[in-house]
């Protein structure tokens, strides 16, 4: 493994990263475009053009650059996969700010478009759509819940009634990147405890009769 510091939304940085991978390891088989920012929780009317542009630069232009420069190198190997991190916020509203949600909806569509435009290359492109997951980006939410004794409220809107751990998303990404998913292409896989499986309803409690 080789760790580097780079800006996922900078084309020169992405080019340098792909070139480094090829030089260090002899080629590129899998690219996971996982970098992202939340952009805060500004509502529609508090979202400035500058905030929107920065969130799109990292969250949407970043994956575009990853595909643009990574796919040709993967195609040279004969086959491979690109996984993009989107979000359930990109599937429907209610899981993120306007800027974040719009950027992740773009990632989902980008995966579908890229899969089509890479026809014949044997390079698959799919989007991973996490629900609430304990990462550096969501650390304040989880820290607050623990300190306030309210962890039972984290992820309470999904049927599993909890947030995810990063390893659970990593395993789903690994599946999409692996030959086990050799016929999965252009798709958005929600890994969200079931959150996006329903429109908002009054939920029936397990073991109880709905009224």
Keywords for this structure?
211 residues; alpha/beta; Rossmann fold; four-stranded parallel sheet; 5 helices; 4 strands
What does this structure look like?
Helix 2 (49-76) runs parallel beside helix 3. The protein is globular. Strand 2, helix 3 and strand 3 (123-130) form a beta-alpha-beta unit. It has a four-stranded parallel β-sheet with strand order 1-2-3-4, with helices on both faces. With 211 residues, the protein is an alpha/beta fold. It has helices at 11-25, 49-76, 98-117, 139-147, 166-177, and strands at 30-33, 80-85, 123-130, 188-191.
Question: What's the count of strands?
Answer: 4
CATH-scheme architecture: 3-Layer(aba) Sandwich
Order of helices and strands: HEHEHEHHE
> Which band does the percent of strand residues land in?
5-15%
CATH fold group? Rossmann fold
The helix count comes to 5
Strand order of the largest sheet: 1-2-3-4
Radius of gyration: 18 Å
Q: In total, how many domains does the architecture comprise? A: 1
Helix content: 25-40%
Structural class, judged by helices and strands? Answer: alpha/beta
- Mean of the pLDDT scores? 91
Secondary structure elements and pairings:
Blueprint: H1 11-25, E1 30-33, H2 49-76, E2 80-85, H3 98-117, E3 123-130, H4 139-147, H5 166-177, E4 188-191
Parallel strand pairs: 1-2, 2-3, 3-4
Helix pairs in contact: 1-2, 2-3
Question: What's this entry about, in short?
Answer:
The protein contains five helices and four strands.
């Amino acid at each position: 493994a080789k760790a580097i510091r780079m800006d996922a939304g900078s084309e020169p940085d992405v080019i340098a990263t792909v070139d480094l991978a090829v030089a260090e390891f002899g080629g590129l088989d899998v690219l996971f475009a996982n970098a992202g920012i939340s952009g805060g929780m500004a509502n529609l009317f508090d979202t400035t053009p500058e905030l929107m542009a920065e969130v799109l630069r990292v969250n949407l232009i970043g994956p575009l650059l990853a595909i643009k420069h990574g796919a040709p190198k993967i195609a040279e190997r004969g086959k491979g996969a690109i996984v993009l991190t989107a979000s359930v916020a990109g599937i429907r509203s209610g899981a993120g700010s306007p800027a974040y949600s719009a950027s992740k909806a773009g990632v989902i569509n980008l995966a579908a478009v890229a899969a089509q435009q890479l026809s014949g290359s044997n390079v698959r492109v799919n989007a991973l759509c996490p629900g609430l997951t304990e990462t550096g980006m969501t650390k304040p939410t989880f820290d607050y819940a623990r300190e306030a004794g309210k962890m039972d409220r984290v992820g309470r809107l999904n049927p599993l009634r909890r947030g995810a751990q990063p390893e659970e998303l990593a395993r789903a990404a690994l599946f999409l990147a692996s030959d086990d998913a050799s016929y999965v292409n252009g798709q958005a896989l929600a890994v969200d405890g079931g959150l996006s499986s329903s429109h908002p309803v009054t939920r029936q409690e397990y073991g109880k009769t709905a009224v």
